[in-house]
Amino acid sequence: MNQISNTETNAPIGRSPLHQEIGERLRNMIFDGDLLAGDRISERDLCQRFDISRTPLREALKVLASESLITLLPNRGARVTQLTSEDVDEVFPVLGTLEALSGELACENISDEQIAEIRALHYQMALHHTRGERPEYFRLNQQIHEKIMSASGNHTLANVFRGLSGRIGRARYMANIARERWDEAMNEHEQILDALIARDGKRLAEVLKAHLTNKCEAVKDVIRTESAKIAEGDS
Description:
CATH class of the largest domain: Mainly Alpha
Radius of gyration: 18 Å
Number of domains: 2
CATH topology of the largest domain: Four Helix Bundle (Hemerythrin (Met), subunit A)
Shape: globular
Order of helices and strands: HEHHEEHHHHHHH
CATH architecture of the largest domain: Up-down Bundle
Strand order of the largest sheet: 1-3-2
Helix content: over 70%
Number of strands: 3
CATH superfamily of the largest domain: GntR ligand-binding domain-like
C-alpha cells in the first residue's frame, strides 16, 4: 500500500484512477487520527478539501466500506467504523496465526536482498522510535510486516491478511500510544529481525504471534477510551 504523508492530504488530486487516490488519503486520515472512530464523514468538506466532485468520493467510500473502515448509513452519509472489544478478540487471533505462518514461509523463501531491505527499514523505524515520531514509525512498521508477508510467497495468505488488518489499522497504531508499550513493540521488532536474519522460521512465527497478542489488550484499551468519548459526546 502506498503511504501518503499528512502534508499531502490537502493538495488537489490530479492522478487517475481518482477514487483509488481518494481512498488512499482517507485511509491515512483514519490511521493517523484525522478521522476518529465514530466520526461522521462530511462529503461536502472532503470535496472542498480535495477539490473533487462527489462521484469519485462516493466510489472511494464504497471501497472503504468493503474494508470495514467506514460504515455507510442509509440516507445519512457515512461514519468511521467503531470497533468493539469483541471485534478485536475475533480478529487478532486470526491475524496472529496468519503472521506466524508468513514468518515460517518467509524464512524458507526470503532472499538476502529482501532481508537487507527489511533490515534497512528496521533501522529507519528505530530512529523514528528514538525521536518519538509515531506516524513515520507506524508506516515503516507496516511496510516491514507487509514485506515479510510478501516474502512468504503466498498471495492468498497476503490478501487475507491485508483484508483483516485493514479493519484494525488505526487501532493497532494507537496501541503504541503509551511509551512503555511502544518500547516493548520496538524490542519485539528487534527479535523479529534477528529471527529473520537467522532464517529461524519457528522462532519468527513465535515472535510474530506474540507481537500481535501483546497488542491485543492495548488495542482494547484504546477502544474503551474512544467509546467513552463518543458516549460523552452523544450525551
